[in-house]
Amino acid sequence: MKLVFALFSPLFIIHSVNAATFSLSTPKRDYLRYELVPLEAKIEWSPGEPVTGVVPVVKAYRGERLVQNSMGEFHLRYDDSSRAYTGGWPIPFNPELGEYRLEVTVPLQSDRFVLQNSIEIEVSGKTLPSIDTAICAMTIEAQTDLIENPVSNPLGGRWDWRNYLRWAELLCANTILYSVGWSVEGKVTSEEPWLSAGPGTFGKLAEEAHKNGFKFGGWIGSFLVWGKPELGLGYRYCWEYEDGKLRRNHHVSLNDEKRIKDIAKLARKIDADPNVDYVGFD
To answer: Taxonomically, which superkingdom (predicted)?
Structure first.
C-alpha cells in the first residue's frame, strides 16, 4: 500500500524588504538657525500600499558627529492624510552654521531588517560682528520712569537719576543694559503694548551714558507678558499643564504675528537712537 498524503500550505503575503521603497523629503534645503525642519518619509511596499506600524528614528549629523538636542531621540509619526511619516526636526539652540545630514532609520519585521535614508540641509544665519573689547555690563530692570524716580549716589550726596552711572562706575562696568520693553497686563493696551516708562527713558539714559564713556544697550522682554494673565492684549498665549489642568500662561506664542510686529516696531525705535550700541531680546 502506498502512503498518500497532501500538503496544505496556508497563504502568507510576505513583503520583501528589498521591494520596499523609502523616500525622504523636506520642503527646502536651506534653513535659518531658528527654524523647524519639516520631514516627510514615504515608505511603501508597492505604489499606494504604505508601510504602517513602524517607528522611523531621526538622527542628525554634523560631518560624522552626532548632533544632540533637548529632545533626545526623535521619531516621525504616521499621518493618515498624506499616507506618510511626518515630523519636524528642531535645530538646536545656537548651532554651528553649515551642512547637516538628517538620517532616518526604519526597523522592519521585528527589527530584523532596517531601511535607511538621509537628506542634507544647510543651516544658515547672520554672522555676528566681533566685539573689540570685553563687555562688563550693569543691567537696569525697572518698570517705572527712571527720570522721575532718582536713586542715591553710592558715595553720598543728592538723589538723581544720573546716579545710575555712578553705580556703574563703582562696579567697574563699561556698558549699561537697560530693559526698554515691558508688557504688563492691565497697564498697557493692544494698541500700545509697552509701558511708556521704558521708551520714554532710554533716550536720555543712552545719551548720558555716552557722555560718560559707557556703551549702552536696550533690550526687550520679547514673548513674556507680566501681570495677571487677563489675555486682553490680542495675543495668542501658550498652554501650560499644571495640577492636571491645561491653562493659558504668560508666554506669547513664538508664531504670534502681532507680537512679532510689536517687537520689531520697538526694536527699530531703539536701533534708530544714535546713542544705542546694542539691541537685545530676552
So the answer is: Bacteria
DSSP letter at 17 equals: G
The 8-class DSSP code of residue 19 comes to G
Q: List pLDDT tens digits, range 116-148.
A: 999 999 999 987 777 778 899 999 998 888 888
Sequence-ordered list of residues with C-beta below 8 angstroms from that of 65, at least 6 positions apart, any chain:
none
* Cα separation values, 64 from 32, 73, 118, 169, 260, Å: 22, 17, 13, 49, 37
Nearest-angstrom CA–CA distance, 282 and 276: 17
- pTM, full prediction: 0.62
In whole angstroms, give the CA distance from residue 282 to residue 139. 13
**Cα radius of gyration rounded to whole Å, the chain:** 29
DSSP 97: P
CB 51 within 8 A of CB 20: yes
